[in-house]
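#struct-help
A.M.: can someone run this one for me? Single chain, 405 residues.
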Amino acid sequence: MVHSESDKYKNDLLETLKKKFEGKLSDEELAFITGSYDKYMFEMIKLMKEGKSAHEKFFADIILNSIDAIVGFNNANEVFLWNKGAEKIFGWTKEEMMGKNFAVIVPKELLDKGEVVYMHSKIEEQGFISNYETKRITKTGEYRNVSISRFVIFNDKEEIIGSVGIIRDITTEKNLEKELRDKENLALIGEVVSSIAHNISNPLNIISGNADYLLIDKKKDEEGFEELKIIVDETTRITKSIRQILNFARPLAPMREETTMNELVTDATAGFKFIKGDKPVELKLKLDKNPVFVKVDKEMFKDIIQNLITNSIHAIPIDRNGIIEIKTASEAGCSILEISDNGTGISEKDIASIFKPFYSTKGYGKGTGLGLAFTQRVVKEHGGTISVYNGNVRGVTFIINLPLI
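D.P.: on it. Structure tokens below:
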């Protein structure tokens, strides 16, 4: 178009020169002038094209290399733009995502709840959504907390041709917020429980002490023995529950020592026959033949291993020959502990919540719901991880990974 318009102006220039100078300029001189015009015009066009190209490249680099995911969708919600930020956050490459419906990154439960329909209605209503917080799913199935801003795009005729979403990964921020809330809740729990414990500890000790004193002169078959025994057992249970809550609410101050997972397991299982009581439960140990060293608080880890064993014993029905298997191993710079049982397992609705404080599957009055929460807290304090899964047939397995020294 520019070249065509330039030719018109060149012809006008030639006619103007001929009229003005009336034969004073030769055809060669006129050709030189118009040729120079062409040369300079083409150079200007070249410079304009190069400038436009550099301008476009500048903004293209910003979009394509942004650390946030920038995703373009057509009117059918198919992806036509997938930058490096999107590749890094979600794991899918540009080639894998081109032409796909963006619902592939939306968790199924959010699709079922109609989140996509809701977002579309908002965009149609106001032309955009801003800082909408939700969850998205990666290629490996990992959930990410994200903040989404999305707006429609138009062509020259003001027709909607799609939309662009800017997706920011806020998973780290959300985890930090949760940790802060948990710490604040723990501090509040500590204050409340300390006050309660102070007020009821003395009466409990008096009740328990008097019941113990009366039991000294009672025989099992005498009247009142069972009632006194129940009083002692129940006051002991209440005292133990208060102590558990106090321990959970207090800040951890581990006394780290060098040891091996084998040593921790051996110490924790030394009194297994007393822990299982009369229940027919067999303990199997498969300890690492080449144990590696970790640096942990021995007493804390003895407590959490015993807690996991106790949970396994409780999960095994009384009419079943129980098996608890404990394995230790090391790989990839970690010391690994596995505790498995052949109990009833954990329901799918509970398995995602068992590490939450005060969440218990044992029924009312049978636990504080702090054992596994405290276990996770201790493991995290030592830089490790704990996970759980149900067995293929029955039972459950807990896996603890600890970094080596």
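A.M.: thanks! The chain has four domains: 2-64, 69-169, 175-249, 256-403.
D.P.: also worth noting: The chain has a mean pLDDT of 83.
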